[in-house]
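Sharing in case it's useful to others searching the archive later.

Someone asked me privately for the predicted structure of Epoxyqueuosine reductase, so I'm posting the question and my answer publicly. Question first, with the sequence:
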Amino acid sequence: MNLKQFIVDKSKALNIDLIGFTDCEPLFDLEDYLVLRQRKSMETEFEEKDLKKRINPKLIFPACKTIIVIGLSYNVDYNENPDYDLKGILSKSSWGLDYHRVLKDKFEQLIAEIKRIKDFEYKYYVDTGPLIDRELANRAGIGYYGKNCSIINDEYGSFIFIGYMLTNLELDVEHSKKESKCGNCSLCIDYCPTKALERPYRVNPKKCISYLTQTKNWIPYELRDKMGVKIYGCDTCQKVCPKNNGVKKSYHEEFIPWTTMGYINIEELLCISNKQFKARYGDMAGSWRGKNILKRNGIIALANMKDKGNIKLLEPLLKDPNPMIRECAAWAIQKLDCNYGKAVIEKRIRIENDEDTKKKMRNLLNNFLTNL
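And my answer, the predicted structure tokens:
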């Protein structure tokens, strides 16, 4: 029996859209770039700090011989619009059921099928492993790198979730690393709101809106201005990509946004409890960061709507228990109405008990005076 073909056939039976195989050789060609990123402080808090573990599969799984990479398209068609006014945008990656759960379930089913005929050792990851999953996907033939650093598949485009499994299986591996087909197109670079795509195939993750909507770190004012009304993730560079035109759509109902319709009610987000948040949004991928991070993003969205009427929703947040929320609310009020915001912030500073938040509010006032 051809074990590799058996795995391919079972993946199709399990409705896994894409599957590829690569060896466990270290990703040495990425090492210099990773070192450069580290030196330039471009790493995010979500990344493995040990660069050797990012490029060497055998440091993660010493018995590794073959890596199996799978992909699921989440490019579902859905056009309904919720009937509330203050809508925040969710990336397609967080439309439906948490993709970590969906891909893990696919892996478990595939593992069970393989074990029916051959016992083996493995470790699998879905967006949580130390290795660079897009590089593994490229080497396994899943797709090629776009200039926006996404993996693009000829059949499904770039709206693809990727998972990989390190195994001790000895399988025939074709070195099918795919070369880019972007040509002279630069739409993703041209349309990136924060210019995080600093050049083709190179992204500054700390400027990427997808990162900004997830980080707990303080977000610079000039980047807040570019976030628009995005509450989790950003699809801009993929939406403008011509390679996503006319591709095969996803048929995975798990990724249809039955609950959210692809949006989040910002007014509701500002006032619901943690328990209510988990009950309503706990099944989506974006919920992993918790209510307060998305709440902060909602505040930024209210400011970017440029409607002074939103101030009535923001003022109560100056008393929020979370200092991050208080600081962001102060910024949003001043952005919507400079003079009124100045008075509100001056009043809040007198009773603010968190020194770092007080310092940030003073900086807001200084910026206001500088721009007069």
